[in-house]
């Protein structure tokens, strides 16, 4: 019985190691920072954040799209050419707070050939406050 248990444990470890190494192959997108907090901004303000990343995989990374959940959030730029292993890139995200009020949590999805594409999401938060009218 002990031999059977040892065999099952060893087989499980081998399968786990193989799955881990298989997942690590191909392009891998690794962000320096996946979230950003703009803090408090005034309604109507426009803010931007640059998210930097590295291809830590062993094949070229190709970003085909950057998807946002709202018209207030705009991907302003991302690399169109393949990023070679070890290469770096940036994705600039802009947020327009016009018509927004209160806490805003936005998620941006990076569509690519990365083997870790399930993890390829960046996000930001901010607190939008009403603009005070200036006395005349």
TrEMBL record:
Keywords: Signal
Keyword presence, Zinc-finger: no
Pfam families (UniProt xref): DUF1573
Residues of the signal peptide: 1-19
Keyword presence, Magnesium: no
Recorded superkingdom: Bacteria
Protein name: DUF1573 domain-containing protein
Species of origin: Ohtaekwangia koreensis
Lineage of origin: Bacteria, Pseudomonadati, Bacteroidota, Cytophagia, Cytophagales
């Amino acid at each position: 019985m002990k031999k059977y248990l040892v065999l099952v444990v060893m087989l499980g470890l081998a399968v786990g190691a193989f799955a881990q190494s298989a997942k690590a192959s191909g392009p891998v997108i690794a962000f320096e920072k996946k979230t950003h907090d703009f803090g408090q901004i005034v309604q109507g303000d426009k803010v931007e954040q640059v998210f930097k990343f590295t291809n830590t995989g062993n094949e070229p990374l190709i970003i085909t799209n950057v998807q946002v959940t709202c018209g207030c959030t705009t991907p302003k730029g991302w690399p169109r050419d393949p990023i070679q292993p070890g290469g770096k890139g940036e994705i600039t995200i802009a947020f327009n707070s016009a018509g927004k009020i209160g806490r805003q949590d936005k998620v941006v999805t990076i569509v690519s050939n990365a083997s870790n594409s399930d993890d390829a999401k960046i996000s930001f938060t901010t607190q939008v406050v009403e603009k005070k009218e200036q006395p005349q």
